[in-house]
Task: inverse folding
């Protein structure tokens, strides 16, 4: 069963939007997490690598911030097994490659810029997600 968390989701969305605006304002770059990760793995320059690495470090260190604020580690519960998570991650990686971007780049930044390519990509992400969840939960029964 998936929990409905409107307040946590709203706060997370606001933080992602704010981070996107800050990155555009100070670096002139779009916050596409996959592109940022690719730039860390294969940087075009050392200054380009530094901001990308700092952003990724901030993303990865979020549980430490949560621990400091609450005194507890964040609870991470997944309704599927670890092999299914790995398979899902690989499938997302293939989709990101063929879609030339991820949900943060297309869905947050691209939609904000009214990019036709991002609108199509985001609609494709959402439709595919809905179909996948339906098939996994109601057809396969996982």
Result:
């Amino acid at each position: 069963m998936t929990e409905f968390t409107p307040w946590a989701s709203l706060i997370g969305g606001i933080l992602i939007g704010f981070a996107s605006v800050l990155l555009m304002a100070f670096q002139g770059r779009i916050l596409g997490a996959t592109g940022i990760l690719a730039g860390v793995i294969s940087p075009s320059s050392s200054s380009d690598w530094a901001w990308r690495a700092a952003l990724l470090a901030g993303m990865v260190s979020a549980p430490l911030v949560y621990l400091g604020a609450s005194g507890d580690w964040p609870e991470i519960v997944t309704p599927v097994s670890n092999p299914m998570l790995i398979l899902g991650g690989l499938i997302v990686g293939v989709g990101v490659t063929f879609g030339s971007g991820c949900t943060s780049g297309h869905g947050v930044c691209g939609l904000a810029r009214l990019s036709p390519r991002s609108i199509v990509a985001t609609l494709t992400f959402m439709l595919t997600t809905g179909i996948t969840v339906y098939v996994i939960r109601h057809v396969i029964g996982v």
